[in-house]
Amino acid sequence: MKGTFICCIAFFAGLQFTVAQQRPQYTQYVLNNYLLNPAVSGIESYIDVKAGYRSQWTGLEGAPVTSYLTLSAPLGDNFIQGDAASMPSGNTPYGRSYALDYQASPPHHGVGFSIIGDKTGPITQTTIDFSYAYHLGLTSKLNLAVGVSGGLNHISLNTNDITLENPLDPAISNGNNSQWKPDLNVGVWAYSANYYIGASVQQLLKQNLYFNTNSNVTSSQTVPHYFFTAGLRLPVSDDISLLPSVLVKLIKPVPTTFDANLKMAFQDIFWVGGSYRKDDSFGVLAGINISSSINVGYSYDVNTSALNTVSNGTHEIVIGILLNNQAKVRSPMHGF
Question: Which end of the chain has fewer CB atoms within 10 angstroms, the N or the C?
């Protein structure tokens, strides 16, 4: 029984399938809301490529490590050419005059792709998804997008990383240690010059997960993740804007939790900010838009839970590449 207990601890601490979030969490989600909501696909007039790396709870052996690559692209010359022509010279998205001149995007399609790898202890997850979204202008200043993404999720257990009292422990012996499962996510996103509101569901298809063929050992099950996001753009001057945002997460059976972020952007060149995750951590963030082709963001989280006695914090870096950026903008026109 001791071996079974150790295996279960590794399993539940790694993927947290029965008591916590099963998908990776991000401090800099506001830089890439596509990770949470497929409706963001093609929201900008350029091809938005982002790569991220997150080392959570550094110093703790077997702590989660997440990496990802995402691509989001618009379809439709009216949108791509229109947005490229609609940005007046010298008018950045963080200036006061931007909202006055802002026009809702013409109807267009968006597509996207993501590959996300997450390793916790002996358990590795890889999710590969493709997305589609349609963006519709509701008013002259407001857009609504709906999106869907689907693909496959691969989960594997490396038994070489597990030391058991009984090598034939029924929790993993004679089991399926490499599994592929379908993945489906949906979302909606409303956005204007100075705000956005979004809602999405990930892991819409419940799946049983087990590393054994013994019917006496209980399997785990994936659960839907509900995300609600909102953000504001509050110009302080023609050069400075405040960008508060919030993310609410509903994942049964755990209590509802939330993330709150505040960024201060200086023109469209660099930004600094802070974050708070309920009952978990505080973070500091900073980023620079090096050019109209590349930007970089970094964050560091300090745990407020009992993990702070064994963890050296969490590091996360995001690199963005803007392809076919005809408007030559350094920062998003339709996102934050």
Answer: N
> Please, where are the H alpha helices in 26-146?
77-86, 96-101
Q: d(Cα 233, Cα 148) in Å, to the nearest integer?
A: 26
Half-sphere exposure of 67 (CA within 13 A, CB side): 2
Q: Cα–Cα distance between 284 and 302 in angstroms, integer?
A: 9
For the stretch 31-48, pLDDT in tens is 999 999 999 999 999 999
| Distances from the Cα of 254 to the Cα of 10, 22, 78, 259, angstroms | 19, 11, 45, 15
- 57 near 29, Cβ under 8 Å? no
Whole-angstrom Cα distance, residue 226 to residue 251? 6
Element at 268 (helix H, strand E): none
Question: In whole angstroms, how far apart are CA 146 and each of 38, 48, 105, 132, 200?
Answer: 8, 18, 14, 8, 10
- Residue 309's contacts (CB-CB under 8 Å, 6 or more residues apart) are none
**Torsions phi, psi for 13 (to 5 deg):** -70, -30
Neighbours of 328 (CB within 10 A): 13
Distance CA 17, CA 118 (A): 14
Which residues contact residue 308 at a Cβ distance below 8 angstroms, ignoring those fewer than 6 apart?
Answer: 302
- Separation CA 116–CA 133 (nearest Å): 20
Amino acid letter, residue 318: V
Structure tokens at 249: 């997460």
Average pLDDT of the residues in 239-244: 92
7 contacts: CB under 8 Å, gap ≥ 6:
162, 164, 169, 171, 172
